[in-house]
Amino acid sequence: MQNRNITLDAIRTLAIVLMVVFHFAYDLRFFGWVDWNVPNGKGWREFRYVILTLFFVSVGASLVLGNYRKFSLKMFLLRLFSIAFWAAVISLFTYYFFNANWIFFGVLHFIAVASVLCVPLIRKPILSLLLGFVAVTLFNIGLVSSKWPFNLISLSLPHSPNDYVAIFPWIGVVLFGIAIGHVLKSGFDPFAKWNIPNNLTLLGRHSLAVYILHQPIFFALFGTIYWFSSSV
């Protein structure tokens, strides 16, 4: 069994913790308890970009570490199905409860698509790095819209969807993650020298479960508090 890379687990853990903090602030605003402009206000938008960067670098690196020795199509498809399933659940839930801003292409949707697009490159770090720069550059010079390809499709999609993740430039970050994954697979694992307790990287090792569960827990908790405070 392949040893885990503690540094990658730590990066994922940091991403998860920051995401929970971000969504906690978002939910406080949603229930009207604060007036912070989450997610689009100054500072909050950049905070989200940091979280997405950590997540998507981890996605690219994980593709390498999980598949470079032996690619298992069965395991890859099982993981892909799990991510796509929960992405669909999130879309259906938000479509029903938040129709004007439902999530049609969020973090999990992007990870599923990016995994399919990038898995052929897991053994090509230099090409991945170059294509990553191309993807980011095409976006920054305005040749590719952040709405692509949805701006080419005639569908009744929300103009301001929650949790939207653009394929460009973020696919470039996943490609950078593949290059970083090759550095990690060579034995680069500085966090391993720190003897970090396993419980401090637990969230990173179970990031999908945390991602799926934390918002329902927050909404149940905040909704209960809101209901009690309104009925008093």
UniProtKB/TrEMBL annotation:
Residue ranges annotated for the Heparan-alpha-glucosaminide N-acetyltransferase catalytic domain, each copy included: 4-216
UniProtKB keywords: Membrane, Transmembrane, Transmembrane helix
A Pfam family recorded for this sequence: HGSNAT_cat
Transmembrane segments: 7-26, 46-65, 77-96, 102-119, 126-144, 164-184, 208-228
Protein name (record): Heparan-alpha-glucosaminide N-acetyltransferase catalytic domain-containing protein
The species this protein was found in: Alteromonas macleodii
